[in-house]
Amino acid sequence: MLKSHPYTVRRDGHTHTEYCYHGSGEKAEQYVVQAIKNEFEIYSLTEHTPLPERLSSQIPNGPELIRELAMPFHELQHYLGMAEGLKEKYRDQIELLVGLEVDYIPGMESDTRQLLDSCGNRLEDGVLSVHFLPGKSGWRCVDYTPADFKDGLIDYYGSVDKVYQAYYDAVEQSIESDLGPNKPRRVGHLTLIHKYQDIHKPTDPDCCRENIYRILSKVKAHNMELDFNVAGLFQPACREIYPPEWIIQEALRLNIPMIYGSDSHRVEHVGRGYDVFKEIMGTVSGADGSDERVEK
Ligand SMILES: [Zn+2]
Ligand SMILES: [Zn+2]
């Protein structure tokens, strides 16, 4: 079962592999070798899970995008086998955790639970993320392109603020959802909806403050963690961590564990932004792992 680790352990909790078709196609082993070079001690492989057919059949962007979003179901076993093989091969150099980035899809909890039930005994880590919302003509990806965000979501909900609202409602539901005993404990990129914030600005920058506070208290109540996801820092229209620092500080005040996630989709992403994580976490008292966050 999953252990918690002190912040002093160099750990990456969110990464992708060749089983992600919007990544570079580089092999997981190349990422792992890079992580060892970068002196990571723990590295979670958290590939996107296959999507339920009733979701993918309602994504209007076309088969090209759908193919890119996630591996098909029949590949899940291969992915897990690959991850387990690497874990064994590199066990003297790095602790690899076999995991998944699981989509929370509002209303499709039973599909997700079924998937988790089918492979939960092989999972050692996981991230629970919202990437899809109902939108124009079906389900829309919240992080595809700025033009798609406008067309599929802003035009559908009426404003950026309302899209944010819908997204945070889904995140809140994800925390409360019953996905069974193998539900991931970590909320992925809490503010992914900010990805295009420089292009599509909310009218009220504080429009979701209440949602965020509520979400954090639920994360705490459910004994969950947050993905300190640096990918947003490198998105030209976002340029901030998912989540931004005020949320990180609030989460730390609540003693919610924050796990660095590179969200690597190519080998060169491995370890990026770790300095930012260290700098922010270094200011936290007790962040040396000497508190109750460390458990077996
Ligand atoms: Zn991805
Ligand atoms: Zn993600």
SSE layout and pairings?
Layout lengths: L10 E2 L15 H10 L4 E7 L4 H4 L6 H7 L6 H14 L5 E9 L5 H11 L5 E5 L2 E4 L2 E4 L4 H12 L2 H17 L9 E2 L21 H13 L3 E5 L15 H9 L4 E4 L12 H9 L14
Parallel strand pairs: 1-2, 2-3, 3-4, 4-7, 7-8, 8-9
Antiparallel strand pairs: 5-6
The structure holds zinc ion (2 copies).
The site of one zinc ion (ZN) has 5 residues, from loops.
What would you say this structure looks like, in words?
- The chain has 296 residues and is an alpha/beta fold.
- The protein contains 10 helices and 9 strands.
- The protein has helices at 28-37, 53-56, 63-69, 76-89, 109-119, 146-157, 160-176, 209-221, 245-253, 274-282, and strands at 11-12, 42-48, 95-103, 125-129, 132-135, 138-141, 186-187, 225-229, 258-261.
- Helix 7 packs parallel to helix 8.
- The radius of gyration is 18 Å and the shape is globular.
- Bound molecules: zinc ion (ZN) (2 copies).
Low-confidence stretches: 285-296
Number of helices: 10
CATH top level label? Alpha Beta
Could you give the order of strands across the largest sheet?
1-2-3-4-7-8-9
CATH architecture: Alpha-Beta Barrel
Largest sheet: 7 strands, parallel
Instruction: Bin the helical content.
Output: 25-40%
What's the alpha carbon Rg, rounded to whole Å? 18 Å
Give the percentage of residues in beta strands. 5-15%
Order of helices and strands: EHEHHHEHEEEHHEHEHEH
Distance between the termini: 9 Å
